[in-house]
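Troubleshooting: if your tokenizer reports a length mismatch, compare against these two reference records.
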Amino acid sequence: MTRVPRCAVWSLVAMLLLVAGGCGVRGPGGGSAATGGLPAGGPGAASAPSQGASAGVTAGGAGASAQASHTSLPPLSPPARVTVGMKAVPSDAGALIGMEKGYYRELGIEIERLDFKTGQDMINALATGHLDVGFTVTAAGLFNAMSRNVKMKIVADKGYNIPGKGYYRLVLRKDVASQVRDFKDLKGKRLAIVGVGSLDEIALDRILRKGGLTTRNNPDIKVLSSFPDIVVALANGSIDGGMLIEPFVQQAIQKGVGDPWKDPSEYEDNAQIAIIVYGTSMIERPDVANRFMVAYLRSLRDYNDAFMKNKNRKEIVDLLARVSTVKDAALMDSMLPAGLNPNGYVRMKGIQSDIDWYAERGMLQGGPLKAEDVVDNRYVEEALKVLGRYE
């Protein structure tokens, strides 16, 4: 496999967050702390204020004033600003829906969306209190920071593959797919990823291992700069397949150049594709952190109602097409939906599998790391006390 400079390790993180649209690091701004009543058994009062870089995007939601609160939590007073690093991709629905429908504002939270050039920039901002919440993927840098006792935790799910509907998967060139009946048939095939040493390589390596292969020292693995470039390369025949995420899976299929091949449940059924991370400044404000999670899970429940139960689907499709990077409602409606756990929990086996992969490659510093060391479920559990479990 052709290797690239270390910055390319983070190109995948940035690309998975980006999917479409531009990005840039913003200048610093201020922050605020707030306290408020929590249900019995919740964490104590908030303390340190947050700091974050302002992107000038504040969440209020068009229906915020008209919608009555559906939780037992009183809103924070004064309202608390929460900075969120995200790219407004469809799997950011837990923020986008709640921002539009006023769920965060109901609880006294004002969201400001920040863009970061690389995943490492986001991790640095989370660690130093310049970013409250990160919508991201696992990375060696994240785990290394946590192993140094930097106050950051994975707190909730932000994307997994639903069996039979994998939104992040290996797509083969249409005229090649019929030749690749099993994993071992991938030998010698030119396969593309958009970054090394992160989620994309992990996913492809797991696929290849099913056929006794690996990404290590594999000259047939190509590193391209973006998911759209993989679709173009499929079309011009310069690659035989590549790791793609929606909406690019659907675009490749609709253009007649891509075949979705095997469902991801056949090669990595426990994978945790994307995650929510609370940074130092969020962990130090438990009242804010708990309320953020309540609004986040309310949003995920609207998403699951729409895409899993076909309830108010058009409303949510139109909402996401309006505020996400995918502006075509028809494309949004046809995409394979990201799995977003309406009860919030991440897949612990998937987190541990990622940790083990990084450790195998010598990318982790410090002693052995377990999923339990990097995941904190207290915020999800507090939210479930308020909302109950989604069935």
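Reference record two:
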Amino acid sequence: MELYEALLGLGIPTAEAVRLFQFLPMVYCRVLLAPKGVPFPDTYHTMTPEGTVGPELRLDDHPVWRASVEFARQEVEAGVTGDQVLQAAGRSAEFQGADQMCKQGSLLADIRFVPSVLIWSESGPGAAEVGTAPRNPRRWWQFWK
């Protein structure tokens, strides 16, 4: 959350700050794991204000994604260290999932990811809590209810 607030403090518009906060860890996870043979989906989903999963969207269609990929590519070419990449990649749910699977004996080459679901809307976190979006009594992770 500190990173998101710092992005806003730099004057980055809310919608772009939200996507940077979400996309940068995903990009750096790919920088770290794709060369090791881990395939990643090229799509993602967002949550609707009603709490349902929205349609599948292409990552490359989002300008913040493309800018994030280009930024990471330039950093790698400039010699950013593996530890620095790991600091960003480690914030991604994909990296954390891969790490847990490897700790349980899975091989990186056997890991398959599904498209990520981005929970924050482009209006930022907490919209539902302050009453600007309707609340769904069923939480997104409680798909069985």
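Descriptive notes for reference record two:
- Residues 120 and 145 are 22 Å apart (CA to CA).
- The chain has a mean pLDDT of 86.
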